[in-house]
Automatic annotation (TrEMBL):
InterPro entries per the UniProt record, alphabetical: Bact_OuterMem_StrucFunc, MotB-like_N_dom, OmpA-like, OmpA-like_sf
Compositional bias ranges of the Low complexity kind: 65-74
Membrane topology annotation: Single-pass membrane protein
Location, primary (coarse class): membrane
Keyword match Transmembrane: yes
Membrane-traversing stretches: 12-31
Protein's name according to its UniProt entry: Flagellar motor protein MotB
Span list, region Disordered: 54-80, 248-268
Sequence ranges assigned to domain Motility protein B-like N-terminal in this UniProt record: 4-48
Length: 268
């Protein structure tokens, strides 16, 4: 009994100490500021809460991000396709320009070529000069010289072959003196442009391919040229790729082949 009762006081003492600790906590808390009491109360309401949000361990699926990524990939694919088509068109247009020079047996390096060809964003722009050294038309008229007819025939063959859409503009130099006072450079530039249209149709160009014929007289001189310079005596033909053109071009080559093919850079 003595041995068994000898430890009872320890249990009683432990209970006493627990009660004293509880009393101490109650007295300490009662003496604290109200804000501390509220914060302490909230802690004991959810003692196992974490400052981090609940997380399953799997990254959430962001639909918007996925759509943006897909849209970006589609846009990149379209840009590459557009670049590919542009390279094919550029290669084709340079090839057509070089063919035309060859048809006329012209040296592209001449300072004063009878014709100038530029590759534009949608096709070719050809300027046919009416120089005194190599006239396109008979003097002060809309009648072609033999050289002019040869040039128009070659041009008609290219237009018909590649199905270009055509606009024709006639121009004259400033101060041009014509024998008939009632016949001005407006009439002359318009008649020359229309004469070119008639010859192209005569040499097998489909009439519906010619979209516009205009005479500008001396109102649009060449850049960096004196308005009275002979170089302003000219007709300009703009050849635009048609949808039929582009449909035929797409399967012809690839960007790598287009880059590998040497082409002439034809600028004024």
């Amino acid at each position: 009994m003595a041995a068994g009762g000898g430890g009872a006081w320890k249990v009683a003492f432990a209970d006493f100490m627990t009660a004293m600790m509880a009393l101490f906590l109650v007295l300490w808390i009662s003496a604290q500021d109200k804000k501390i009491l509220i914060a302490t109360s909230k802690y004991f309401q959810s003692p196992f809460s974490s400052p981090m949000e609940d997380h399953s361990g799997v990254m959430p699926f962001n639909k918007q991000s996925s759509e943006n990524s897909s849209s970006s990939e589609d846009s990149s694919g379209k840009d590459k396709a557009a670049d590919k088509n542009k390279q094919i068109e550029l290669s084709f247009l340079n090839s057509v320009a070089a063919d035309f020079y060859r048809l006329l047996h012209l040296d592209q390096t001449l300072d004063q070529k009878p014709i100038d060809i530029q590759v534009t964003s949608d096709g070719l722009r050809l300027t046919l000069f009416d120089r005194s050294s190599n006239p396109l038309f008979k003097e002060n008229s809309a009648e072609f010289t033999d050289w002019g007819i040869n040039m128009i025939q070659s041009l008609a063959w290219l237009i018909d072959r590649h199905h270009f859409r055509v606009t024709i503009d006639g121009h004259t130099k400033a101060g041009l003196k014509l024998p008939d006072e009632g016949y001005t450079d407006w009439e002359l530039s318009s008649d020359r442009a229309n004469a070119a249209r008639r010859k192209l149709v005569l040499y097998a160009v489909e009439p519906e391919l010619i979209e516009r014929v205009t005479g500008y007289a001396a109102t649009r001189p060449l850049p960096k040229e004196d308005p009275a310079a002979e170089a302003n005596q000219r007709i300009t033909l703009s050849l635009a790729l048609s949808s039929k053109n582009r449909a035929k071009l797409e399967p012809l080559t690839t960007p790598g082949e287009a880059a590998a093919k040497p082409v002439a850079v034809l600028t004024p």
